[in-house]
Design a protein that fits this description.
It contains 9 helices and 11 strands. It is an alpha+beta fold and 319 residues long.
Length: 319
């Protein structure tokens, strides 16, 4: 009779083929608790002072080894899959920074979108920062200082997404100074049926300034919470020029306040408008009436720096 135990033992001890690694990371969105445009710089960019705040709404990036040219996959319509995408640019910039010749290769990045586009929530820059982190892990490691240098060349907001939490952004937005984290707030985000590109928002701002249009800052909103920072007053200098082209922004902002938000504003260059709520039940109650005005409505909450660091940390998996 054949000794099956010996054969079984052989199967158990046979080394399995090495599985290619996958590195998975989250790209968290942001809202702007304040955004002031201070002028135009010599390099053509606008000089900013803004307060960033990460929230628990995120895209997911997966990087894995795959022979051949660098590739980018995404099922969301309208997402470019070439060097127009900041993920692609981040990969190319990191590849060069690591001293590798030619174009990125032998890597596939899959992007799963949840952050709406053209909403002022930083989805593109967040994706770029997450790409730097997951690719650095896949490609053998890189110091955070190098990732910050590379991020600043990819997108103005990108360096912020390497740290998260509540932070002051200066310059083009790439100079990041951590602030005391805003206490936990629930965030209702209303994305109207139209988007606004960053280029459009700043062009409209410049056009209005050239025409002599000035906005009185009468909508100061000091957040009624024990928080030592007064840097965030929920004023967005890009909001008035966008609102003049899209009055729906004002209607959504009013609806958020009427629904119980302690403060509301357009985020970044728009078109998303967000409201801050102190409790989850209060925020959840606002969703249904606001959904009638929106293409999409999201319920999220703010993330501290420590929470962001934990949730955005790349994870190595085997496939």
């Amino acid at each position: 009779m054949r000794d099956r135990s010996a054969a079984n033992e052989h199967v158990k001890t046979r080394p399995s083929a090495a599985r290619p690694p996958r590195v998975v990371g989250r790209a968290h969105a942001k809202v702007n608790l304040d955004l002031r445009v201070l002028g135009t710089r010599a390099d053509g960019y606008h000089e900013l002072r803004t307060v960033f705040q990460t929230i628990d709404l995120y895209d997911t990036l997966t990087a894995q080894e795959k022979p051949g040219p660098f590739g980018l996959k995404c099922r969301t319509a309208g997402v470019p899959l070439d060097d127009r995408n900041l993920v692609w640019r981040a990969a190319a910039a990191l590849w060069r920074a690591l001293g590798r010749a030619g174009e990125p290769a032998d890597t596939l990045v899959t992007l799963e979108k949840a952050i709406p586009m053209q909403a002022g929530l930083g989805g593109g820059s967040a994706d770029a920062a997450a790409a730097l982190q997951v690719l650095a892990r896949l490609w053998g490691g890189a110091p955070l200082s190098l990732l910050r240098e590379v991020a600043a060349t990819v997108g103005s907001d990108a360096p912020f997404f390497l740290s998260g939490g509540t932070a002051l952004g200066l310059g083009r937005g790439e100079e990041i100074y951590p602030l005391v984290d805003l206490p936990r707030h629930w965030v209702v985000i209303v994305r109207p049926p139209f988007g606004v590109s960053t280029v459009e928002a700043y062009t409209w701002y410049d056009e209005d300034r050239a025409a002599g249009v000035r906005e009185p800052r009468s909508d100061l909103q000091i957040l009624p919470v024990p928080w030592p920072s007064r840097a965030a007053q929920m004023i967005n200098d890009l909001e008035p020029p966008v609102l003049r082209r899209h009055p729906e922004i004002g209607a959504i902002k009013t609806a958020l306040r009427e629904a119980g938000a302690s403060a509301a504003a357009m985020s970044g260059s728009g078109s998303a408008v967000f409201g801050l709520f102190r409790t989850r039940p209060a925020a959840a109650r606002a969703l249904r009436p606001l959904a009638k005005m929106a293409h999409a409505v999201f319920l999220s909450h703010t993330l501290s720096r420590a929470e962001h660091e934990k949730r955005a940390r790349p994870i190595l998996r085997r496939v």
